[in-house]
Amino acid sequence: xxxITSLMHGFGVAxxxxxxxxxxxxxxxxxxxxxxHGLGGANGVAILLPLTFTMPPTSAIIMLSCIYWGALFGGxxxxxxxxxxGEPWSVATTFDGYPLAQKGRAGSALAAAFTSSFVGALVxxxxxxxxxxxxxxxxxxxxxxxxxxVYLLTFxxxxxxxxxxxxxxxxxxxxxxxxxxxGLDTVTGQLRLxxxxxxxxxxxxxxxxxIGLFGIGEILxxxxxxxxxxxxxxxxxxxxxxxxxxxxxxYWMTSLRSSAVGCFxxxxxxxxxxxxxxxxxxxxxxxKDGEKFGTGQIEGVVAPETAAHAAGTSALLPMLTLxxxxxxxxxxxxxxxxxxxxxxGPLLFQEQKEFVWGLIASMYLGNIAxxxxxxxxxxxxxxxxxxxxxxxxxxxxxxCAIGAYTVHTSxxxxxxxxxxxxxxxxxxxxxxxxxxxVLALVLGDRAEDSFRQSMLMSQGDMSVLFSNALVGGxxxxxxxxxxxxxxxxxxxxxxxx
Amino acid sequence: xxxxxxxxxxxxxxxxLVVAALIFAxxxxxxxxxVRLGARWGSDGPQAGYFPFYIGLLICLSAxxxxxxxxxxxxxxxxxxxxxxxxxxxxxxxxxxxxxxILIKLLGIYVASTLFIAxxxxxxxxxxxxxxxxxxxxxxxxxxxxxxVWFKVPLPKGPLEAWLGLD
Lengths: 497, 167
Description:
heterodimer, A: mainly alpha, 1% strand, globular, B: mainly alpha, 2 domains, two-stranded antiparallel sheet, flat
C-alpha cells in the first residue's frame, strides 16, 4: 500500500514540536472563532492567512487547517448551550442539542457532538487518504476541456442543490465571476471593468470579500437580534464523557449514514450546512425514535455533527486533487496555497509529496488535538460567549479591519471590506447564498483560463466539451445539475397533477 | 399596541426589487464594458470581453427574472425586510464602523481601535468607565505587541506613535 507509506512519511513531516504547537494553537483559535459570532471558519482563516506568509507552507497549512477543524468543533458549543448556532452548519445541532441542555444533559450532548464530529472527520480523512491519490493520478490526464467541465460541474452542483433559490444562486455566483474578471486581463493585457480607478487594477481579492461578507455581514445580522445571550451551564467531566461514549455505539448506523451523506456533500460542493440538515432529516426518518427528534435525542445531535464534520473535511479532497474547493473555507485554503506558490491540482501529489502528505497526516492529528481541546476546555469557551456583545462586536470589527489591511497593506481594502459587509448583510437577508460568490471569485480566473484554452483548442467550437466520454459525461452531469430545479419541479407537477 | 420600533422600515418585496434592480445594473455594466473590450472571437482567440460578456448576460437574466417574480409575489409584500428598531441597531454599528475606518487613516489603527471599542462599550454596552478604559486600551496593546513586535507586520500608525517614537 503506497498510501500507507506516504502517510507514515507525512506523519514524520507533521510530527515536529513546532507543528504540534501550531496544531494546538490553531485548534484553540478555531474553537474561539467557531464560538464567536461574526468570525467563522472561512473569514477566520482569511484574517490569519497573511500572518502565515513567512512560515514554511507545510506548517502554515497545518495551522490554518487546524483553525478550520477547531471552528467545526466550536460551532456545536454555542448551538447546544445557547441555542445560537455559531456556524451555519451547526443550526441542525440546535434542534436536539438545546433541548438536551435544557433537560440538564448539556454535558452528554456536548460529548456526543464532539465525538461524532471526530468520527465524521476521521471517516472523511480516511477517504481522503485513499481516494485522493487515485483522483489525482486520474486527473493527470485532464486537459483544459476536462478542467473546465469540472469547474462547470462544481458550479452547476450549487444550482442543483440550492433549495428553491436557483436563480439567486446563479446571480450570486455570476457576481463572483464578474468581480474575479475585474483588473488586468493576463492573456490580452487589457484592463477590464476598472473604469479608470487605479485601486481596481489588481482586482478584487477574495480574502477581502470573505472578511466583509462573512465577518461584517454576520455582525450586522447578529446585532438585529439584540445584544443579550442567555445560555445553559456547561458541566462536562470524565464520567459524563464515558457514559456518553457507552451510549454512542448504539447509533453506529446513524453515524455511518451521516458520514456517507457528509462525505458526498463535501466532495460535490454542497458543503457542510446542507449536509447537516440532510443527515438530520435522514436520521429522523430511519430512526426508531424518529418522532421523538426535536425533544432532546442524542441521536439528533450525532447525525448533523457527524455529517457537518465529514463534509467540512472531505471538501478538501477536490481542493487538493483538482484545485476545486468544496466549501468557502476550502476556497480560502486554496487561495493560501496559491499565495505560497503551490499549484493545487493533480501535479501537487507528484511535485509536493511532502506538503500533501504532511497535510493529510496533520488532519488525523489535528482532529485528535481538537477532540482533546474541546472536551477539556468547554467551560472556558462557553465563558467567552458570556462576554457582552457590546465588547465582542467592536473587537471583531477591529480584527476584521486588521485582517483586511494586512492582505495587501492597503487602506482601500478596509473600505472595501465594509462595502462587502453591507452587501453580505442584505444578501443574507434576501436568501442570496454567499458561498457560490466566494467560490466563483476564487476560481474565476482559473475557470476562464481553462475555458479560453478549450476554445482555442477547438477554434471556438463548444462541442469540445462533449468531445470524449469523460468530458462529455462531466458536462452532461453538470447540465443535469443545472436544470435539476426545473426537472424536479416538473416531476412534482406530473406526479401531483 | 403597535410599538414604533416594530414598524417595518421596508417590506421584503421592496428590498427584493431594489436589490434585483441593482444586480441588473451591475450586470449591464459588465456587458457594456465587455462589448467595449470586444466580446467576440478575435484573430488570436477569444477577446478579453468574451467570457465576462456571458457572465454579465447571466447576471442580467437571473436578476431580471427575480425582479419580475418579485413584482407578482404577494406574500413578500406583507413580510417586513427590517423593522425600524433593527435598522436603528444595525446603523448604530455601521456608522461608527465607517467613522472608524476613516479614523484609521488619520490616527493610526491602534488609537482608532481604542476609541472605537471604548465608544461602543460606553454607548451601547453602558460599561463603567474603568472597565471601558481597561478593555479598550488592553486590546490595542495586545494587538500592538502581536503585530508590531511578534509577527512584525506593520499596521497603519498615526501621530501618537510618531510622538512616542514607536513608528
